[in-house]
Design brief:
Elements: H1 3-15, H2 18-25, H3 29-43, E1 48-51, E2 54-57, H4 59-86, E3 91-97, H5 99-104, H6 106-116, E4 120-126, H7 129-138, E5 143-148, E6 159-172, E7 184-185, E8 194-198, H8 203-213, E9 220-225, H9 228-236, E10 242-245, H10 246-252, E11 256-259, E12 265-273, H11 280-296
Parallel strand pairs: 3-4, 3-5, 7-11, 8-9
Antiparallel strand pairs: 1-2, 5-12, 6-10, 6-11, 6-12
Helix pairs in contact: 1-2, 1-3, 1-4, 2-3, 6-11
Length: 303
Amino acid sequence: MEVRQLEMFLAVVEAGSYLQAGERLHVAHSAIHRQVKMLEEEIGEPLVYRDGRTLQLTAAGRDVEQLARRVLNDIANVKMRLRESHSLESGRVQLGTGTTMVLTFLPRVLEVFRARYSGVEVQVMTGTATEVLAAIAAGSLDLGIVFTTPVSPIDTADLELTPLYEEEFVLIVPPGSPFERRASVSVADLNGASMITFSRSSRMRQFIESQLASRGVRIKVVMELENEEAIERMVALGIGSAFVSRRRAEAEGLPFVTLSDIDICATASLAVSARIPMTRAAREFRTICLECAGRHYQMGAHV
């Protein structure tokens, strides 16, 4: 059963004769008659019968008519959606990232994207870098923005990573901390300090702790949490200090200090699947991310 056969069959149903159906489709009526016969042979039932000078549908013919209308309507809808997607009048982008990106980098990206492609929906999922990258590799996300570090390098077999900008991590401190009124501290000052960190599986935690350990510094982990909001809340309650993105600390007005003798920086990277082709909407979103990174997040610069 072919789409063209269904088109010819519907033309016969609507015109009431092979001759008029042929005129409508600009096809010889004998060719239409042959295709309908082939359809009947495939189904094993007659689809039409002659009643005087017009053709009438059998019970099987009525079933095939409903099927044909449904199939052709579905095909027309798919073609329309593809045309709209090509012109980006509609569509969807599925993005995965962390809450820091949602607060600092994404607002400008979303503003530009919505101004250009107002009909395209952007769905944002927040999670750890590991979760986001796994979802991209599995095809459930179009792209992601995550922090990458030299520690625990990401398996890029199924991924393509493009650097966007460098991000410095600073120490947010609780009220009453001896660091509270200082602009910077040395890494040695953190030896034995009470710290609130991400879980042990966090790539950023592993990276930061390796940087401190390389200077002989051991911190005292007093709490392990899964997201920045909870960490910031515990710092405000005086539980301990924590490392967060400098842009996040600045955006939220959090008191922080920098490290005077070591730079703790990660790369914000754009990740896409290396196997699954991107939709046009995802490609345009990626382009805008690169534009915004180049314009507002120059490598090593802060705004």
